[in-house]
């Protein structure tokens, strides 16, 4: 292990644990919905507005993460984001009125988005960024797998609000850990008027750069595909292939497990084979396209299940690897802002495309999921090619 790795092993480990927490908070949502519907006496459409509220907070974080890092540094930004998340969780734990609960979800989305953007920016700046970021997002998958189990267990003897209390309490030791392991930001020299003007326009400048915008659109499509299959794959398997609820549930769990394994395994293998980060992503996108076509064109329930697991596996490295190459999309001073912007915009795809998928399935039939996934997979390939044409040169192999 290099000296740099020895110096940074503790905050990197804390980053991984933090992403388990982020995955947990995402994974518990579906399990809590029935209890929330009963508690608040609302229908599914109304209770589902919490996801739009969370997304709004997440998008807001994307526009502020870069300026926060520039002004406060990594440590203070993480503590701010984590503190925001913890306060939202503690407030939710007291079972507020529904409108106040929606406000808490905006705050929780903001804290989660700050966590994600700041940690992506932090690891992007370390040696071996591609592998580190793939591991980081793999631990999100670990949390997403454990979240439903945790929520189901807690609901056997406590109300749904207790789940958010647990999430809030888990976040507090992480904040202490970041405070102890990350250095405080050194006081910068006094900025000139020109430098102050440049800093004030970081977001506007980053949002005008074609490569950054293409990266944001690319991840919006990626997240849309990932969440669309994750949310509607169960209905497709049951309605179109006649799978039992148990088998369909296992298949969707296999999809998320494949996503996690892809993030743990593909990047190290690509490194040994001497592949570049962009080449590895093209390979993964080809695998995504073939997997979606397999689900669409090859008949049989068993093949549908296999294709979903393969789809998750090939999807796995795409998001973290895009974050790893973000420094090649813009100049150095705009990298944190660009990462925040790309991360924030990605949640738009996670809200819009799954809704659109459900609307199509409602109007035409659940069979439309695979061809819609194929269309998104092909769109990803085109946008990624456009992104790579605007990248700055990089090292030969994945690092």
Automatic annotation (TrEMBL):
Principal localisation: membrane
Domain of life assignment: Bacteria
Topology in membrane: Multi-pass membrane protein
UniProt KW keywords: Membrane, Transmembrane, Transmembrane helix, Transport
Positions of transmembrane segments: 12-35, 47-69, 76-94, 100-124, 136-156, 162-182, 211-234, 246-266, 278-298, 304-326, 338-361, 367-387
Claim: Membrane is one of the keywords in the record: yes
Pfam families with a match to the protein in the record: MFS_1 (PF07690)
Places the protein is found: Cell membrane
UniProt protein name: MFS transporter
Organism field: Microbispora bryophytorum subsp. camponoti
Organism phylogeny: Bacteria, Bacillati, Actinomycetota, Actinomycetes, Streptosporangiales
